[in-house]
Amino acid sequence: MYADHTLTPKEAIRLAALGTLALEPMAYSALAVAIRHFVSRVIGPSSDIMGHSIELLKYEGLVEEGNPAEEDEAPLRLTAAGRRELQTLLTANLRAADTALNKLVIALKFRFLHLLERAQQQAQAELFIDCCEQELARLEDLRAYHAADPGFLAAWLDQDIADLQSRLAWLRHFSTGLSDSN
Fold this sequence. Notes:
The chain is mainly alpha-helical. Helix content is 66%, strand content 5%. Helix 1 crosses helix 2 and helix 1 runs parallel beside helix 6. It is elongated, with a radius of gyration of 19 Å. The two termini are 32 Å apart.
């Protein structure tokens, strides 16, 4: 993890792999395809992120091979250590900046959020809200600073600000729904 306890690209792929295996055991090749599909659909193809090996998960004891049924490959499944690592990755901090890596981490957290206990889900929802509020404040400050500038920056920022305000409203509604279902 980075010093601010946010995920590195390697850890984002680890989260994708462990979360996917938490949903169901699968063969190595199927897992690789599932990860590549998800990551490339969220942030586009990225050799920087996709270069991390799933094989390390076996070496580190986070996943193990089951017995091959009638398949060529034995399905991989999480170990107890893998479940603990998944929990750690799912509850990691988020960066406020809107980067491709952060977008991937948020998408992965939403994909696997249901695997956490309700209190942890609520804590993550609050983290999503905090990050969105920080990003909104940053863009509103930029918009105010360049309000009198000629050109189209203000209009573009207005659109981004409106998107963030909409996302923030959705996140608050989502968080309330988690609280209400207790």
